[in-house]
Amino acid sequence: MDKQKQIVEMFDEIAPSYDLANRVLSFGVDVKWRKEGCIKAIGRLGKEKNLKVADLACGTGDMILHWQKYLGEGCEFVGIDPSAQMLEVAKKKVQNASFIQAQAQEIPLESESVDIVSIAYGLRNVCGYQEALKEFYRILKKGGVLLILEFTHNPTPTLFERSAKFYTQKILPLIGGLISKNLKAYQYLPNSIEAFASTRELREELERVGFVKVWSKSYSAKLSTLFLATKE
Q: Where would you tag: which of 62, 74, 193, 221 has the fewest CB atoms within 10 A of its CB?
């Protein structure tokens, strides 16, 4: 079985407990990060009505709920995820949105058809994420905004940042495994951070794809990073 299929099946298995585990493991602070990301992206775009938003690796639909809260009338919301079970949860939780089962490397949307693309804590689970970035660029309209929230690799952590990393690597898997009854899944998640790009590397990759005005802000001892980028 290829790695991408294994990752998708893992998310299928933890879908029922995913929201609870997220809130507990992040102490609810991820809600604040999502909120700030939405507000900053809308501010950069300069409009909030009659927009099309595509949320990739949408999971159970949390990010779409945030977009719906902060955007105005006439907006269309599309959630895309390869996990059928995650999408089943999202469909029950989120109203006035459409959902598509698909990979981020091959997005079934027309070129230059979307105003905002977002992906929250899903990019590191995309094998060959560089191809996904090209797809984000393709579907965005000129002037469109990309929002990425992700746990990025920190190659030179300070002593304080090492303490935070200890939580994600040693404590988080135990709590996540207890909630989901799937220890293996929550052992994979911190390991995936170490295998992923650093903030600098992801910024450079976005610029290589063609994005401009690439901006980033780190949270919680540089464990989580918000990225914004624009299609010129």
A: 74
Instruction: Name the pTM for this structure.
Output: 0.89
CATH number of 173's domain: 3.40.50.150
Instruction: Convert the pLDDT of each residue in 132-153 to its tens digit.
Output: 999 999 999 999 999 999 988 8
Range of the domain at 186: 19-52+104-230
**How many CA atoms within 13 Å lie on the side-chain side of 173?**
15
Q: How many domains in the chain?
A: 1
Note the pLDDT tens digit of each residue in 189-205: 777 877 889 999 999 99
At 198 the three-state DSSP class reads strand
11, part of any domain? no
How far apart CA 66 and CA 120 sit, in angstroms, is 11
Contact between 81 and 101 (Cβ < 8 Å): yes
Position of tokens 């879908």? 15
